[in-house]
């Protein structure tokens, strides 16, 4: 669809998981492109602070809503905050990741990860896609990961939630494009965010991406295809994982890499 970014995806963007890390960068990026932004995060003070900072820097309208996207009682409050704001762009960024052996991770943590990483985006896409389709325009960005491209030991359940987002976005890209709605799965590699920095990774910093660059690259890819793998090096690895290697070799290679990067977890 032709038009400027704000004509295609405005007037409001909803960024779910917006206070820090990639979500904060997505928020800055869409504001720079002229969209008003509703920031949803469980970090009430962080989201409000980010909303003020971005409104002052870009001149767009911002609002913050305090919700735990893994909780069943989050949705009414979020839908209330969305009422009266036409959301033309959904960026579902919130994601929980726990690094460690599957056998040692508690069931509760795995289920919470499913709630935030899978049920959350499913609910919001279900809520927002019909309006976008009826208006004949809109965008949906779901956060996958390199770990969603093949099995990654030590983040087995997390990787599976990211595969869910990848496959959901690919299918919706095809289903919704005839309605003028662009859907995109974003697969970042390791990216310097508070979540990543607290994971205990030993990966050299040269291989860790800048979150602002990841957000820009992702938004530039919206409307150009169903999936973007950010970063040239990651795209080479993605080709190997998705196309060249048998599944067993891909999973073994990623397992070895994960145990090297996270020696204490493995
Ligand atoms: N960073 C990477 O290396 C990397 C690589 C590949 C994919 N990704 C994906 O990119 C996305 C963002 O990652 P990130 O590293 O920027 O994460 P992050 O640094 O942990 O920030 C995520 C933001 O979402 C919020 N959030 C988390 N759970 C929430 C919940 N239940 N309800 C409301 N807000 C919640 C966090 O708040 P709190 O601070 O309160 O938790 C935080 O503000 C995730 O989906 C992740 O899977 C990241």
Provide keyphrases for this structure:
binds NADP nicotinamide-adenine-dinucleotide phosphate; single chain; globular; 7 strands; 266 residues; alpha/beta
Instruction: Output the number of helix runs.
Output: 10
Radius of gyration: 18 Å
Strand element count: 7
Unreliable stretches (pLDDT < 50, length at least 5) are none
Helix content: 40-55%
Strand order of the largest sheet: 3-2-1-4-5-6-7
Identify the bound ligands: NADP nicotinamide-adenine-dinucleotide phosphate
Would you list the SSEs in sequence order as H and E?
A: HEHEHEHEHEHEHHEHH
Determine the N-to-C terminus distance: 47 Å
Silhouette: globular
Largest sheet: 7 strands, parallel
Helix-strand makeup class = alpha/beta
Question: Would you kindly provide a brief summary of this structure?
Answer:
By secondary structure, the protein is an alpha/beta fold. It has helices at 5-9, 21-32, 44-58, 74-82, 107-135, 156-176, 194-197, 211-221, 232-244, 247-261; strands spanning 12-16, 36-41, 62-66, 87-92, 138-143, 181-187, 227-229.
Question: How are the SSEs placed, and which strands pair?
Answer:
Elements: H1 5-9, E1 12-16, H2 21-32, E2 36-41, H3 44-58, E3 62-66, H4 74-82, E4 87-92, H5 107-135, E5 138-143, H6 156-176, E6 181-187, H7 194-197, H8 211-221, E7 227-229, H9 232-244, H10 247-261
Parallel strand pairs: 1-2, 1-4, 2-3, 4-5, 5-6, 6-7
This protein binds NADP nicotinamide-adenine-dinucleotide phosphate.
Structure in words:
The chain has ten helices and seven strands. It has 266 residues and is an alpha/beta fold. Strands 3-2-1-4-5-6-7 form a seven-stranded parallel beta sheet, with helices on both faces. The termini are far apart. The mean pLDDT is 97. Bound molecules: NADP nicotinamide-adenine-dinucleotide phosphate.
């Amino acid at each position: 669809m032709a038009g400027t970014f704000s004509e295609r995806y405005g007037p409001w963007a909803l960024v779910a998981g917006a206070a820090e890390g990639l979500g904060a960068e997505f928020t800055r990026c869409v504001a720079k492109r002229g969209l008003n932004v509703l920031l949803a995060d469980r970090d009430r003070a962080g989201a409000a602070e980010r909303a003020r900072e971005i409104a002052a820097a870009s001149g767009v309208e911002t609002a913050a809503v305090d919700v735990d996207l893994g909780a069943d009682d989050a949705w009414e409050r979020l839908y209330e905050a969305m009422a009266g704001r036409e959301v033309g762009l959904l960026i579902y960024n919130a994601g929980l990741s726990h690094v460690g052996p599957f056998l040692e991770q508690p069931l509760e943590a795995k289920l919470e990860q499913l709630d935030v990483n899978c049920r959350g985006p499913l609910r919001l896409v279900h809520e927002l896609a019909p309006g976008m389709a009826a208006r004949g325009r809109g965008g949906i960005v779901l956060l996958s990961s390199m770990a969603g491209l093949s099995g990654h030991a030590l983040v087995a359940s997390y990787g599976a939630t990211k595969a869910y987002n990848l496959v959901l976005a690919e299918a919706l890209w095809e289903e919704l494009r005839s309605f003028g709605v662009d859907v995109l799965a974003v697969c970042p590699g390791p990216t310097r965010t508070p979540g990543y920095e607290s994971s205990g990774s030993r990966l050299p910093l040269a291989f860790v991406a800048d979150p602002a660059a990841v957000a820009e690259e992702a938004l530039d890819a919206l409307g150009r295809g169903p999936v973007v793998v950010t970063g040239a090096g990651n795209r080479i690895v993605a080709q190997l994982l998705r196309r060249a290697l048998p599944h067993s070799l891909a999973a073994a290679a990623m397992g070895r890499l994960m145990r090297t990067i996270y020696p204490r977890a493995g």
